[in-house]
Amino acid sequence: MRKTTALRAAAAATAALLTVTACSSRRGQDAQDTVAGGACKGQQTTGITDKTIKLGGIYPLSGPASAYGTISKGVAAYFKYVNDQGGIDGRKVQFIVRDDGYQPPKAVEEARRLVEHDKVFAVFQTLGTPSTAAVWDYLDKQKVPQPFVATGASLWGTDHKHPWTIGWQPNYVAEARVYAKYLKDARPKARVGVLYQNDDFGKDLLGGFEKAVAGSGVKVVAKESYEVTDPSVSAQMANLARSKADVLLDVTTPKFGSQALAADARNTRWNPLHIVNNVASSAAVLQPVGFKNVQGVVSATYFKDPADPQWANDPEMKTYTSALHKYAPDADPANQFNAYGWAVASSLHKALDAMKCPTREGLRDAVRNLKNVKVGLLLPGVTMSTGPGDAFPLETMQLMRFKGQRWQLFGKPVDTRKEFGPLAE
């Protein structure tokens, strides 16, 4: 799959910064890095010992996507819980969180700080397509694993030039295919208006949707984009309303997702089926709009909703809720972003357990050789699998509809691998 213009721009914007420091910083790093012996001879052991493992994460704790920052609390709570249980294969996890404010140049600075100063074993979770695109060249050159990035851009699974980076959540094209299948089945003559973020995140999902509905009766009749620096999306929503679309595909991050839902609720003369993408589907996004104003909104998911009572007695959900109260008392267990953090940290735990060598190379290889791995907070029927020619750990999603004060699952899980085939590279 070719890189998009925005990804190339992100790389170009950080190239000068990396070039200035690369040689000198690498020489300093080499002097402190460590390597394995024996069967793993020559492989990197920086950041991991028999007793500890050091991980770094980059999140927008501030800025326009700060709602995602709480994911780090779910991750940290998981590692603190595991540490109290004896650690991962006897190793206590140190998890270092850095804030990039959803700004790619800042993400580069923080990645370098984690690698060259903190000497982390891996940069686990860079959040957002722009930030991940900004740092993956650097981490690839440094040969530092970048596992389970918090972005569903399809590029992380189709690019072969960055073996140290891999996604986790279902990619945006797979998600788009689920919505396309739903509309083709339930509303075969749907007229769709699309609100999307004007970057690779928004364009990836939009492009996947347009391709998936091509040749069917479902038509995209209007498209409106916004920038992450925009104060609101009111004007875009007004334009989409004038299109008289009967379906609104809402491809936004949390701040703008709330704005779009509120604008839809205010416009009583327009009543489209509102589909909001997964990354803006948290109850924390819907609640400010008022639950009574988001009834019937549709989305898709792949992990258990902590607000759904059907999981109240689920063993992993009970462990998660108890641990979050203990280790992150300021975090709401019902917030899906916190559950996401717990689930992805648990997934990394599985990958670390699967390493043949306790090295950076061992982790790089482990995340690309997962075989139907079960993770407690994933929905029944959703497992992690990767292998040659398939670098997408999760590709199964299930539709959900907001009713009352929570999401309710409907239909059956859709394995997009089986339903649609692999993504074109």
What does this structure look like?
With 425 residues, the chain is an alpha/beta fold. It is 40% helix and 16% strand. It has helices at residues 5-32, 71-84, 104-117, 129-142, 155-158, 172-186, 200-213, 234-242, 254-266, 283-286, 315-327, 336-353, 360-366, 416-420; strands at residues 52-59, 92-99, 122-126, 146-149, 165-167, 191-197, 219-226, 247-251, 273-276, 298-301, 396-403, 406-409, 414-415. The strands form 4 sheets. The protein has a 4-stranded parallel beta sheet with strand order 7-6-8-9, with helices on both faces. Strands 10, 11, 12 and 13 form a 4-stranded antiparallel beta sheet that branches. A 3-stranded parallel beta sheet has the order 2-1-3, with helices on both faces. β6, α7 (200-213) and β7 (219-226) form a beta-alpha-beta unit. α1 runs parallel beside α4 (129-142). The longest helix has 28 residues, at 5-32. It is globular.
Our measurement of the CA-to-CA distance between the termini, rounded to an integer number of angstroms, reads 4 Å
Counted by DSSP, the helix tally is 14
Question: Widest sheet: strand order?
Answer: 7-6-8-9
Radius of gyration, in Å, reads 21 Å
- The chain-level mean pLDDT equals 92
Low-pLDDT residue intervals, each spanning 5 or more residues: 1-6, 15-31
Oligomer: single chain
| Biggest sheet features | 4 strands, parallel
The secondary-structure element order is HEHEHEHEHEHEHEHEHEHEHHHEEEH
Helix- and strand-based class? alpha/beta
How many runs of DSSP E, i.e. beta strands? Answer: 13
Overall morphology: globular
The amount of helix comes to 40-55%
